[in-house]
Amino acid sequence: MIKVNGLIKQGSFHQLSNFENITNENCPSFSGIVTGECKGDLWVDDIDNPRISIVYSYPVGSFGFLGCGIYDYEYLELKKFIEKEIFDYIKDNKLGYFEFSVENEHLKPYILKMFADMEIQSEREYSYRKSEHINSCYSLPEGFEIQKVNNDFLIKVFKGDYENKAFLIDRILECWENVDDFNNRSLALCITCKKRIVAVIVGTARYKNILAIDIEVEEDFRHKGLGYCLTIEFVNECVKRGLTAQWDCMESNLASRKLAEKADFSAFKENDVYWFNIP
User: Fold this and answer.
1) By three-state DSSP, how is residue 113 classified?
2) Are 162 and 196 in contact (CB under 8 A)?
3) Model confidence over 106-135: pLDDT tens digits?
4) How far is the C-alpha of 252 from the C-alpha of 121, rounded, in Å?
5) Whole-prediction pTM
6) What is the CA radius of gyration of the chain?
7) What is the arithmetic mean of pLDDT over 95-108?
8) What is the DSSP string of 159-173?
9) CA–CA distance, 68 with 75 (Å, rounded to integer)
């Protein structure tokens, strides 16, 4: 496996020219890294004609396996690589455990067989999409205001007008090379109250016209309908730009699932996320 500098910077070219075998439209958080749209770490089996990729997404906090089925001799080499290079990566970055999903059904049996001797845990992940305008009224509590995260707002954030700028900025720069990159490829909204950013929704990855979502409301400001207000505005802004919003959440995150369903997102995919402690 070969480590690839996947991110496409202005005026540069991607190291890979053939993505067909190692992308999947159902998982923009990983496929966007493969195609160089957003930040992450990427390993492939071959630069010219890759058939297998291992992708690490910072906002997801997990690895993704993409590709087609593998031959027996490739299986052994891949297993050795994971047990040495990927496990070292996990230790070096203090991730604690190996969490992953397999985004191709033909590849899944091979990957799970590799770790058959590990105490693997798993949980179901649900994926939803929305590409139509949401016709819904809402009202924010007094003192709260929705902000578009554009250059004017970011100038105020960087100047220190809001006391918790990391709540927004760290999310953006975790996913995108810089603010310009974020502005060109993604979008975000937040809700402010006085001098604090209390809720954010950010497009964390992009593949073609599909934008993956991360949403969070500060604990002290939950149960006020802020997440729903942000979701409506975010989806409608995506529709204006010709984008489809994708919402991924774990089975145990009932609040996230209920919010996606309340906003009339359509479920379109289920997959398993696996994890185990590394030796």
Assistant:
1) helix
2) yes
3) 889 889 999 999 999 999 999 999 999 999
4) 14
5) 0.93
6) 19
7) 93
8) HTSSTTTHHHHHHHH
9) 12
